[in-house]
Design a protein that fits this description.
10 helices, 4-stranded antiparallel sheet, 7 strands, alpha+beta
Length: 298
């Protein structure tokens, strides 16, 4: 039962404030239940305790992003993006968008809050693009030279369909236990459900799926790891400064390179490089906002 000691709270109780926005016990309870439901996990005390801190951090980020989106007067119609997102979600449950609403209602989950989180995330992405697009400058000549070298030295190129789990690290003894726990859950429940439950990446809501990535867009370290993996295999954690990334190789394919599809490859490389930079700016900007925000946890 969800009404365990961790959630023996009233709907109106304030458990945190983020600048001028509050987080209620109802929101936290709903967030925990939604994460566990989407990960197909039992709503029991053990899982609640495991997920509660991640849920609270996601709510804090959501409130910070919503504040900034409103402050920056970001407007526009995201209905097409939202519908595509919900259609992909509904496919997992063999239903449609109306069916997803019913599923949420039947499981006592607040669909309105979930929808607002999706809307806020799309608006946040729009804000980041508007704010940093002029800083995303790629050397076109370098890309052209790189592509010409590919054409001269290779007849084909590799693309990887990947999923990721991104874990924040504290750089202390807890990190080893966190990684071990996540690896155990991957073995028991599968990569997708574990990504929804633990990953702090925006891809977590999609089971960690980040789609097709061209080999030229990957770091040498990641490329050397992927080259040794078979489809369906999961990597050892790739430890970076403040996070660890676990990859799953979903699929791979070779692309034959010739003059006719060189432009297509060029566009893919540019898009991937831009997305990487946008994600970096997004994370840095959110960290800056968070550092300057008044966040009180009751």
């Amino acid at each position: 039962n969800i009404e365990t000691n961790s959630f023996a709270l009233t709907k109106s109780e304030i458990i945190a404030s983020v600048n001028n926005r509050i987080i209620s016990s109802y929101e936290l309870k709903n967030k925990v239940k939604t994460i566990l439901f989407l990960a197909d996990q039992n709503i029991n005390q053990e899982n609640i305790d495991l997920i509660k801190n991640k849920a609270l951090q996601e709510l804090i980020d959501y409130k910070l992003k919503k504040n900034q989106v409103i402050k920056s007067n970001i407007q526009g119609d995201n209905s097409s993006q939202i519908n595509n997102y919900l259609k992909n979600l509904s496919l997992k449950y063999k239903t449609d968008i109306e069916g997803i609403k019913i599923i949420f209602k039947n499981n006592s989950l607040d669909f309105k809050i979930y929808l607002d989180e999706i809307q806020t995330e799309f608006n946040w992405q729009k804000l980041i693009f508007q704010k940093f697009q002029n800083k995303i400058v790629l050397d076109e000549k370098e890309i052209d030279i790189e592509l010409q070298n590919i054409l001269e030295t290779q007849t084909n190129m590799q693309e990887y369909k990947l999923a990721e789990i991104e874990l924040p690290l504290k750089n202390n003894s807890e990190d080893k236990n966190t990684i071990l726990k996540v690896n155990n859950e991957i073995n028991e429940f599968g990569f997708e459900k574990t990504a929804i439950k633990y990953s702090v990446s925006t891809s977590s809501s999609d089971g960690g799926n980040i789609g097709w990535i061209n080999s030229k867009s990957l770091s040498e370290k990641m490329l050397s790891i992927l080259n040794k993996m078979k489809i369906g295999e999961i990597s050892q954690p790739i430890v970076q400064t403040d996070r660890a990334i676990i990859l799953k190789l979903l699929d791979e394919k070779k692309i034959n390179i010739d003059n006719t599809n060189l432009n297509e490859l060029r566009e893919k490389i540019i898009k991937n490089k831009k997305n990487q930079l946008l994600n970096l700016y997004s994370n840095n900007y959110l960290s800056k906002i968070k550092n300057n925000a008044l966040i009180e946890i009751k």
